[in-house]
Amino acid sequence: MPRVGLFIPCYIDQMYPDVGFATVEVLERLGITVEFPEAQTCCGQPMANTGCTEAAAPLARRFVEIFEPYDAVVCPSGSCVAMVRAHYHEYFHHDLRYDALRPKVFELCEYLVDVLKVDKLPVRFPHKVGLHQSCHGLRELRLGSSSETIVAPFNKAKQLLELIDGLELVEPARPDECCGFGGTFAVSEEAVSCLMGHDRIADHLQAGAEVMTATDMSCLMHLDGLIRRDKRPLRCMHIAELLAGRPV
Amino acid sequence: MASSRDAILATVRAAKVPQAARPEPFRTGIRYADPLKQFGESLAAVGGKMIVAPNAESARAQLLENPLLVPGKKTCSLLPEIIAPTFSLDDVADPHDVEDVWLAVLPGEFAVAENAAVWFLGRRLKHRVVPFITQHLVLVVPRDQVVNNMHEAYDRLKFGTVEFGVFLSGPSKTADIEQSLVIGAHGARSPSGVMLG
Amino acid sequence: MTGHPTRAAEFIALPQRAAWHDQSLWFVRAKRDKAAKAIPEWESLRDAAAAIKAHTVANLADYLEEFERNAKKLGAVVHWARDAAEHNAIVLKILSDHNVKRVVKSKSMLTEECHLNPHLEAAGIEVVDTDLGERIVQLANERPSHIVLPCIHKKKEEIGELFHEHLGTDAGASDPQYLTEAARGHLRDRFLKADAGLTGVNFAIAETGGFVVCTNEGNADLGVSLPPIHIACMGIEKLIPKASDLGVFLRLLARSATGQAITTYSSHFHGPRAGCELHIVLVDNGRSTVLGQDDFRRSLNCIRCGACMNTCPVYRRSGGHSYNATVPGPIGSILEPARDPAKHASLPHACSLCGSCSDVCPVKINIHEQLLIWRRELVKKGLLPLTKRWAMSIGSAVFQRPWLYKMAGGMGRLALKLLPRFLVYSRLNPWGKQRELPTPPKQSFRDQYKARHGK
């Protein structure tokens, strides 16, 4: 039995605990026992993305110390996994401990598809769903093929959503445009950020979506904030919640 | 003081860029079952028109179906058997004097299927401005001279002497005003590709 | 933060402007996608282009010397300029020596970068930008807002007014066909009167000493085929080793830029016209410095196709002028801070790090990664606002101490719940201007997890 460590991003821990529990349920249903190491806090992405690498470095080191005992680390966020996998190099030049941990850190969907080879899900979700392709998962982890690249199309999140009974995927006109969250960008470039978000919401609504889902709760936090302010008829749910069979 | 040339080269050398091997020549360019047909489609897509003609008379007849190419207006032609010139370019001293050319009929060396480009050599003309300044342009290419893609095109080209050459693909155009495509920005408004033979 | 966010907000505040601008450029991106998809070998072409560029910059000094040698052999005069001032002085001297009064210029981002036009105009020389879009912004006394589509920010009605004022077109006329025809007539007159023609360079070939200029309008060819002097200005990064490399780059350039298979005119210049002069000005202006920087060297791969602008969700919604830079958009946000970090400190942050630019780039520049590295450089140079740096230091201190993080998280959630709305959604909270904050749960994940697992 592999020892799987659960990596719950700080904002999910504080604001969206059910996304964490949905992740646990999906994995447990597939026979995986997970452990939540309590010492974890934040991977350091907000600091790194602001250029404050000195503030990020100790968090990166903590992360490796906390998670290195595990055979696999699973996280319901493409962005946080991308931080560890694509941006930790800077803090660990030829560090054997990091090099050993790096390939064992997975975003939830890729763990389900690539490692557990999930081909059925015993859940039902009879709704029209638009998949918002969170950028870091898409273009840094390659959870799917991006619309810019000319390769055979694939998409791990979609592959899983298609296993859900009753779920109808709708296609926005722009398949993978950014929602405009972007961490501190959401605040420092408020006008552009909100316009980007409004445009994504409009696109999913015109496609007929009742629920918008994503591999990153941060995108959804931003989108949901706009949706609730404008009272649009759209719900935001993390993909773990759909995979766990949560109702709307 | 070192010259700017030496200063720039010294800074560039001092940058100590890690060595990177020169990649193998690109050999996997797209190929088409019927390059001539593809050339015609590519040319149509950029606002031009391909005419396939077994001989000069046929080419002439097909070209004259276009009322814009009526004979009589000032014409520069290197293919008199298709359309006769109305003046001799070699007698023109100043290129500014060809400003009022209406039609130019010029030989292209070969054509490229993937993008409707025709390779034209400036040395064919005393004044290379002709294909750019004329209102209408006809490029005549032997029909067996069509390559698939730009890699094959450059395989055919040799540089090293004083020379001007240009790939011409369709009519002059612009979309600078609100992305509206307008044919005839500065140069030829209607290039036709005649594939002869 | 001032700078880009302020100018972006102003652009967005114009009625319908941002949505229209976004749609126009998305249309170009969609055309690019279609053109790229027609080429099954697209990704290997990108790899080849990046590899050729990597090899070229590793041997740039040798290739520059080879190019100079061959260009001279063909009869061109080769000049070297360390910076913008020297470039402008060289061009002015060539023109003055020949008593040139009127110059026609085709698109050259380098001369924009060097601010050549005002320099020549101050010396009494008339400079006419002959690319339609560039002519429009020149008449409007603006700078291009996009490197390939210089007046993409302008509505046809505005252009109609401008032409009415300067070219005498009918008042109120805004039909693109009509306006383009008017510009054709106006510019043809300038072509015929020009004493010299100036162009940029898309690619210079070391092996042959020649160079290639790409346009759709034919303005470069008209501009240099009539007057006796052709001056071509190029950055030293425009070199490629061999003519056969052009196959790779010309296939990528127009498809990436506008979705065309190739530009209408791809002109190959080898030596001057008979009886005429050809001058080539090689310009450094900071490029050799970037060459020495491992993190930013790949930005020199740029072939100025503009695809990163067309795909950038921020650029599309904020307009090129919001970058206040010669080269706007993602690639500009790398190139411009390299020249003046303090002036352009907001640009690396004008990015949501979505990575679309890196995926669309035909020469595989890791644009979004370089923007991230630039943010680090800005911190090192003390150019990130102190408040942000403090916030990040405090955040880090909290996250390093799980007990403190737990406490802070709990307090935050409680505060969100208890504070009156007017305090949470005050002007100090940009998040709340158009967005609700999430509804805080009673307990964090870790608290509930602990309770459930009975630890």
Report what the structure shows:
The complex is a heterotrimer of chains A (248), B (197) and C (455). With 248 residues, chain A is of the alpha/beta class. Chain A folds into 2 domains: 4-115, no CATH class; 128-243, Rossmann fold, CATH 3.40.50. Helices cover 47% and strands 11% of the residues of chain A. Chain A is built from 13 helices and 8 strands. In chain A, the strands form 2 sheets. In chain A, strands 2-1-3-4 form a 4-stranded parallel beta sheet, sandwiched between helices. Chain A has a 4-stranded parallel beta sheet with strand order 6-5-7-8. In chain A, helix 12 (217-230) links the parallel strand 7 and strand 8. In chain A, helix 11 (190-206) packs across helix 12. Chain B is α/β, with parallel strands linked by helices and 197 residues long. Chain B has a single domain (30-196), classed as Rossmann fold (3-Layer(aba) Sandwich), CATH 3.40.50. Chain B is 21% helix and 24% strand. Chain B has helices at 4-14, 35-45, 56-64, 130-133, 150-156, and strands spanning 49-53, 75-77, 103-107, 110-112, 117-121, 136-142, 146-147, 163-168, 173-174, 182-183, 190-196. Chain C folds into 3 domains: 4-9 and 289-380, Orthogonal Bundle (Fumarate Reductase Iron-sulfur Protein, Chain B, domain 2); 39-285, 3-Layer(aba) Sandwich (Rossmann fold); 386-452, no CATH class. Chain C is built from 22 helices and 10 strands. Chain C has helices at residues 4-13, 17-37, 42-58, 60-73, 84-97, 109-113, 116-122, 132-139, 156-167, 176-193, 219-225, 245-257, 287-291, 307-311, 313-318, 329-339, 356-360, 367-380, 386-399, 402-418, 421-424, 445-452, and strands at 77-81, 102-105, 126-129, 196-199, 203-205, 210-215, 229-235, 239-240, 265-270, 277-283. In chain C, the strands form 2 sheets. In chain C, strands 1-10-7-4-2-3 form a 6-stranded parallel beta sheet, sandwiched between helices. Classes of the chains: A alpha/beta (248), B alpha/beta (197), C alpha/beta (455). Chains in contact: A-C, B-C. At the B-C interface, helix 1, helix 5, strand 8 and strand 9 of B face helix 2, helix 3, helix 4, helix 8 and helix 10 of C. Strand 8 of chain B pairs antiparallel with strand 9 (265-270) of chain C, so a sheet runs across the interface.
